[in-house]
Amino acid sequence: MVDRISALAGYYRTGKFGILDNDTAGVILEDIRGLDLHQIACWPDTLDAVGKLVAKSAGCKDAPTPGKVEVGKKASVIRVEPLKWWILAAEAPEIDPEQGSTLDISHSRTRVRITGSNAAEFLNRHMPLDLREESFPVGSAGSTAIHHVGVTLWRSEQGYELFIPRGFALSLWEGFVESATQFGLEVV
């Protein structure tokens, strides 16, 4: 497999920026490198069968329902559309073409993790999703847009995981760095 180079390579400057509260940043941004991401699609009549294959390949009890994520023993599974899943950190299972298809999309996305006490407020200045705990708890996923760019957001145990199309990653990153300084920013 070809080594994946982040779309942010060469533009990624670590440090603390903006107004910090007791040397603590309200927003922490991190480029998560080495993305291993596969998309699995099925047909309406093969949803259950392919869902079982997806869950088994990730080490999950069940495949997630739309807008949810299951974290298994081998990988995480994100239900990005009614008939599509993404498998994060594992190979896609072998699927009969009559049941569905798989596609390695590792090189097509940049993964940015957003954490910190102001992470949800920061993200809500960029996307129209209700990120309050009762509406978007850990294990939730959603497809939305930032400046007309389609993105996928997963709220993981570690924070908000944002999957950005590679060609737009740098321009969105630059906007994030600039707008996050109002909360105090740390790039790790």
Protein topology:
Elements: E1 15-17, E2 27-32, E3 37-42, H1 47-58, E4 69-71, E5 76-81, E6 84-88, E7 100-104, E8 109-115, H2 119-124, E9 141-146, E10 149-155, E11 160-165, H3 166-180, E12 185-187
Parallel strand pairs: 2-12
Antiparallel strand pairs: 1-12, 2-8, 3-6, 3-7, 4-5, 5-6, 8-11, 9-10, 10-11
Characterization of this structure:
With 188 residues, the chain is α+β, with helices and mostly antiparallel strands. It folds into two domains: 15-34 and 108-187, Gyrase A, domain 2 (2-Layer Sandwich), CATH 3.30.1360.120; 37-104. Helices cover 18% and strands 34% of the residues. It has helices spanning 47-58, 119-124, 166-180, and strands at residues 15-17, 27-32, 37-42, 69-71, 76-81, 84-88, 100-104, 109-115, 141-146, 149-155, 160-165, 185-187. The protein has a seven-stranded mixed β-sheet. A five-stranded antiparallel β-sheet has the order 4-5-6-3-7, covered by helices on one side. A hairpin with a 2-residue loop joins strand 9 and strand 10. It is elongated and about 55 Å long. The model has no long low-confidence stretch (mean pLDDT 95).
